[in-house]
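Board notes (copied after class):
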Amino acid sequence: MSFGPPPSVYTESAQSADRTRARRRRRLLCGAAAIVVAAALVAGAVALWPSAGDDAKSAAAVKQAPDEVRETHETAPASPEGEPAVQHNEGGLTADTRYGPGLWATDKLAVRGVATRLEGYRIAPGQDDTAWSLQLDGHICAVSRDMTADHRTAVVIQPPHPGAAAGKGICDQVVFVDLDTGKKLWQRKMPGADFAYVTNTDLALTKGVVAIGWGHGSVAYDMASGKKLWNTSTGACQDQGYAGGRALLALVKCGQSGDAAYRVQKLDARTGKPRWTYQVSKGVQGVYLPSADPPVLAVEAGDIDVTDLITLDGANGHQRATISMSGYEPLCGSVGFSGSFFGVLDKCPGLVVGRDRLYVMSKESDEIDEPANRVVAFDVQKGTMAGKFEGRPFQNVVPLRADGDDLILYRRSIDEVQPAAVIAWNSRTDREVPYLFFHVPEGDEGALSDPEQGQIVYEHGHVFFAAREMERDGKRPKSPVLSVLGVGSAGLKH
């Protein structure tokens, strides 16, 4: 397998990621030694609590068109007692097959990408049940975080390019897939994609449209037919990629890296024409698009990390607020793979954007008697703090998704007594409702629960985990490795 420039997925930046993970492992080990726990899980009473934002969810639960980007709404399960719902192990891992970009879930399946294929696993407690496996024509280069209301999504792949070495590593085909059946709906060769690589290719979905950008060109397709709608070629200014969902936002870069200028545009998804343009201030080193509606930018202003979030008015692109990220970890950019691989422009696993709130994870505390971290809510229009949800000592909290007025978040476990949890939190009322309590297998907890290393999805009352990179056991390299773990409610069983 060749990923194209740079020649290897793992670079010097891996050392920094390893140091961060090692520090987190030390904190967890210290916590287990420092805290003596005497607690019991009282699940029966909390099972009757109402959802933290039922009224807002009912109002928002409008039937969607099949080609809209899916927005589902959750309710508290009958019981928060968790039980395994999916547990799939991957065997025969090699250096070419250990990468797992992409994790999606429906009410019946968990779907993930593994190297050159997509696989769907049935939600079937106590079983490892593969519903379908779709072999692609090459390694996955980029994935969308989204799917349509009727469970379709797109991936960009890197087909083999026999012959000239210069042609290897090019990510120039897009595949549209039905995630319910594993059927390939259409596949297209992207025009002018000679410089599309795993390092720079991003794709997004919006109503009826699949859009892909790679910094040297871009293209958009109609979801239903696979017909090309528009594309751009090389020039002084180029679309770097897109954020999708209820709207389509483009990041445009003009000039070279050392002297680059950025602008953000809201596009008419069918024509590619701008509806408004926001000019990013000079001196910004990088821009991410964690949300298209409401429009939110994460910018690196004079640093290699995100320094600020900027919120815009969706109607005209005017700036609303700037929120300093000092003390926070939105985790935009190089996550898990120690590089900008598989499409990172719209992915910030430490940040969730709702309709009028955004939620960002704080940096970790080094104090053993303090909450490990917190998730802070900000008003999108004003940029002011609107609430905070604190973790526990040695138990980090991670924002997963917005759901009406609620934030669904994940709290890590620490030992065999204190379980992991999925919780719905309403920043307006400060009410929290437990959805699930469970334990992640000890040997896999670090990789699955850390948003830098693992993908976490909550959907239809289940939480799913998948490591971005599956690591073999050095002593048993041929042993199967946990690929996907899903947890759901055990229900009211007597």
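Comment from the instructor: The two ends are 52 Å apart (CA to CA). The mean pLDDT is 86.
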